[in-house]
């Protein structure tokens, strides 16, 4: 997190800059904070969105364009501004601002801010990726996911903002589509007074935009965005629970109608995240899979397991004896993305290869007489999983990052999960949720059962939090950071478990 | 195909609102739905906006509808209209300068209406999308109020009137199998609530409790536990007996 209090920076910046501009004609518009993302060695994507009244449609702004200035500096006092420019917040894009800053130096911290109509935004800190030829000693990152606003407070983000990180991987379920009452569900925040627009399930563009606005008003989430660059991918709730490509969760919804909803959701997603202009969706399609390089140390492959997947086998949910899942033609990634990934992984010259994606890749048997598998996870798509793990067996240093399931798991990935005596080919860090599921608990009978039936699981934990990770040249360390509570503000963080894994001999051992 | 294109061009401004007039009664759960239909009459995809406004006596849960529309596609969006006082009002919907004004005739519930129909406010501790507090008094067996705080108890559902009424019993219809097990019935009293009935260990779909008649402005059902997975509060229908 920025060590100099943001408020002070904001005040200094405002005092220095406001004098040259006319009096504000709109209320303070930076209520949703600032963000940066998708770091490159020479550039970063800066984001903000103007919303003077964030709980109103269109953020309380009229349908007119707004001029927004931006600055990038080497110091948090902005005495060494090295890039600046002007952008436009257009109503066509929900008054969002996406600035693709180039010409920066690799592996460096930078500070940024925006100004519009005489108002100055909070200051964000970001960091470029190392040069492609660099040999970094370490990459420090966190993985996080699943932040249902109604399920609790975001103190985990406040704690994450205080970590020392190079980048944050967010693995999906940034918003949830369901109804939110006037007190924010389990937050029971009587000061919130949300309008009943939020009781409508999101399906149109205006409602998705308002939902992002609500989430982004949270100060802890804003602090985490302002502290580090993020690399994001989505899961299902950014559109609808458990959708698959063009198939709605509800079989009665025609595909043509669902694709309109998906188009609205994807558009709002792009508008509200630090993603580059070429990634903006075309109707119901948006390319979200991409690669990032961190010198020779790591390549990160960001995947999309929702947009191209075949419909869940055997009617979705937990199933046993579902032969359809074994169909070799079934795909989770879609042929294009899968071939792209296998090709890049297979040719990678990085020491580590990170797969930043949504759902649990390790086989996860639910135990008991039924011993079911979850058809929504990689267990429902074993053909694609097998191809990736066979590639990982040839490529040292594969680390899979996952979210979705609101539990912490640490797993050794094997080419054949039925043979626990064989060597692991990769490791998987499944991060729990930031808030989804409420306070949770260290363990449950279900988690104990999963540990018993899945010997490749090194950890199963049901608390909230995130995973902090450091990739060294030869060893990876993962710390599972868990929250004491989330349904009341003020939750504390602690490290529940730590693991190490060697690059050339993958396998999680307790640190 | 040509016929379809001609049909599209006959939709003024690509905007239709159904029905052309709306008749409702006052009360939070006595409103009606308008359906706003936005059509892309062109040959390229568009993002369309429709803006809604209404007289102050009416309430709309939204004032904007924005959606991507592929060519020839019509998005149909329901908008609930409720009213606080009788009269003749309008809902106004605009798109690209084209305006549709829908007259809304608002009357008071008849004097002999049920206590549910006479309710002015119906609220709950939380609600899932599509399972609002009003779903518990809509007379339909296929809808219910469903709280959104899974496995967290208690929850509550509440009905209130503009004036006091005498109440003497509450009939609860809950879900089969996953229904409510334990709940209290409370009535509003000066400065708080008074519990007038307590149900424990219920396994019935329909449960009736009677109590000595009480005058009150509100009745609250505090739900304490459910059967089966004990996850959520489910009220399919509530009938408050009295006058």
List the helices and strands and how they pair.
The complex is a heterodimer of chains A (511) and B (243).
Chain A (H helix, E strand, L loop, with lengths): L5 H13 L15 E7 L2 E7 L16 E8 L7 E9 L6 E6 L7 E8 L2 E2 L3 E4 L11 E6 L10 H7 L5 E4 L34 H12 L2 H9 L1 E4 L22 H17 L18 E5 L3 E5 L15 E2 L15 H12 L5 E5 L16 E2 L7 H13 L3 E5 L5 E6 L12 E5 L9 E2 L3 H9 L3 E7 L1 E7 L3 E9 L9 E10 L6 E2 L1
Parallel strand pairs in A: 1-11, 9-10, 10-11, 13-15, 15-17, 17-19
Antiparallel strand pairs in A: 1-2, 2-5, 3-4, 3-6, 6-7, 6-8, 9-22, 12-13, 14-16, 18-19, 18-21, 20-21, 22-23, 23-24, 24-25
Chain B lengths: L1 H8 L5 E4 L3 E4 L1 E13 L6 E9 L3 E2 L4 E6 L4 E10 L3 E9 L2 E10 L13 E4 L20 E2 L8 E19 L6 E10 L2 E8 L6 E21 L7 E2 L1 E6 L1
Parallel strand pairs in B: 2-9
Antiparallel strand pairs in B: 1-3, 3-7, 4-6, 4-8, 5-7, 8-9, 10-12, 11-16, 12-15, 12-17, 13-14, 13-15
Structural class of chain B: mainly beta
Helix share bin of chain B: under 10%
In DSSP terms (H or I, runs of 4 or more residues), the helix count of chain B works out at 1
> Termini distance of chain B?
59 Å
Uncertain residue ranges of chain A? 1-23
Shape of chain B: globular
Most residues in contact: chain pair: A-B, 30 and 27 residues
In terms of quaternary structure, what is this?
heterodimer
Strand coverage percent of chain A? 25-35%
Count of helical stretches of chain A: 8
């Amino acid at each position: 997190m920025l060590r100099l209090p943001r408020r002070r920076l904001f005040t200094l910046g405002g005092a220095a800059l406001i004098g040259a501009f006319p009096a504000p004609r709109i209320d303070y518009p930076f209520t949703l904070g600032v963000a940066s993302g998708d770091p490159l060695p020479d550039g970063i994507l800066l984001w903000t969105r103007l919303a003077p009244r964030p709980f109103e449609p269109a953020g309380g702004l009229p349908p007119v364009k707004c001029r927004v200035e931006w600055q990038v500096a080497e110091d948090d006092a902005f005495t060494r501004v090295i890039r600046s420019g002007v952008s436009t917040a257009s109503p066509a894009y929900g008054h969002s601002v996406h600035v693709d800053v180039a010409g920066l130096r690799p592996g460096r911290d930078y500070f940024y801010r925006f100004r519009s109509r005489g108002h100055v935004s909070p200051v964000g800190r970001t960091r470029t990726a190392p040069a492609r030829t660099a040999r970094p000693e370490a990459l420090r990152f966190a993985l996080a996911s699943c932040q249902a606003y109604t399920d609790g407070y975001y103190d985990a983000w406040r704690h994450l903002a205080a970590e020392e990180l190079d980048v944050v991987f967010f693995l999906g379920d940034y918003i949830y589509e369901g109804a939110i009452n006037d007190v924010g569900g389990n937050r029971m925040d009587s000061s919130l007074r949300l309008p009943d627009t939020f009781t409508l399930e999101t399906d149109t563009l205006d409602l998705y935009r308002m939902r992002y606005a609500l989430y982004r008003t949270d100060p802890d989430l804003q602090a985490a965005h302002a502290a580090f660059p993020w690399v994001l991918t989505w899961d299902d709730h950014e559109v609808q629970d458990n959708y698959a490509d063009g198939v709605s969760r509800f079989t009665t919804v025609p595909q043509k109608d669902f694709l309109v909803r998906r188009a609205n959701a994807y558009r709002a997603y792009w508008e509200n995240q630090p993603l580059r202009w070429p990634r903006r969706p075309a109707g119901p399609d948006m390319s979200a899979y991409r690669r990032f390089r961190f010198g020779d140390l790591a390549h990160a492959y960001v995947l999309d397991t929702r947009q191209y997947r075949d419909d869940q086998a055997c009617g979705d949910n937990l199933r046993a004896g579902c032969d359809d899942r074994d169909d070799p033609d079934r795909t989770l990634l879609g042929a294009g993305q899968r071939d792209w990934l296998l090709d890049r992984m297979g040719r990678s010259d990085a020491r580590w290869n990170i797969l930043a994606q949504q759902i649990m890749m390790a086989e996860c048997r639910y135990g008991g007489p039924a011993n079911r598998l979850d058809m929504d996870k990689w267990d429902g798509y074993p053909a694609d999983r097998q191809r990736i793990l066979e590639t990982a067996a040839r490529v040292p240093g594969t680390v899979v990052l996952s979210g979705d399931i609101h539990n912490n798991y640490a797993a050794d990935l094997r080419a054949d999960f039925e043979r626990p005596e064989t060597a692991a080919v990769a490791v998987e860090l499944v991060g729990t949720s930031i808030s989804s599921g409420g306070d949770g608990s260290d363990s449950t009978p279900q988690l104990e059962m999963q540990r018993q039936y899945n010997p490749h699981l090194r950890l199963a934990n049901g608390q909230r939090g995130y995973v902090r990770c450091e990739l060294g040249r030869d060893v990876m360390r993962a710390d599972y950071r868990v929250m004491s509570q989330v349904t009341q503000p003020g939750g504390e963080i602690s490290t529940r478990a730590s693991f190490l894994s060697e690059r050339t001999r993958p396998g999680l051992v307790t640190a | 195909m040509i016929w379809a294109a001609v049909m599209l061009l006959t939709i003024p401004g690509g905007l239709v609102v159904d029905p052309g007039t709306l008749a409702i009664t006052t009360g939070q759960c006595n409103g009606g739905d308008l359906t706003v239909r936005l059509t892309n009459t062109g040959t390229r995809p568009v993002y369309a906006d429709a803006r809604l406004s209404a007289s102050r006596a009416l309430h709309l849960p939204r004032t904007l509808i924005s959606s991507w529309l592929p060519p020839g596609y019509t998005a149909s969006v329901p908008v609930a209209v409720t009213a606080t006082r009788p009269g003749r009002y309008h809902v106004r919907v605009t798109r690209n300068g084209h305006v549709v004004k829908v007259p809304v005739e608002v009357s008071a519930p008849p004097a002999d209406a049920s206590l549910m129909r006479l309710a002015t406010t119906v609220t709950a501790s939380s609600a899932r999308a599509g399972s609002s507090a009003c779903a518990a008094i809509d007379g339909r067996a296929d809808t219910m109020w469903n709280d959104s705080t899974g496995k967290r108890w208690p929850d509550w559902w509440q009905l209130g009137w503009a004036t006091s009424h005498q109440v003497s019993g509450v009939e609860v219809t809950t879900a089969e199998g996953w229904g409510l097990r334990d709940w209290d019935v409370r009535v509003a009293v000066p400065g708080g609530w008074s519990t007038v009935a307590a149900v424990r260990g219920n396994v019935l779909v329909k449960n009736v409790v009677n109590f000595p008649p009480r005058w009150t402005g509100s009745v609250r059902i505090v739900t304490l536990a459910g059967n089966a997975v004990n996850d959520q509060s489910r009220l399919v229908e509530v009938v408050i007996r009295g006058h």
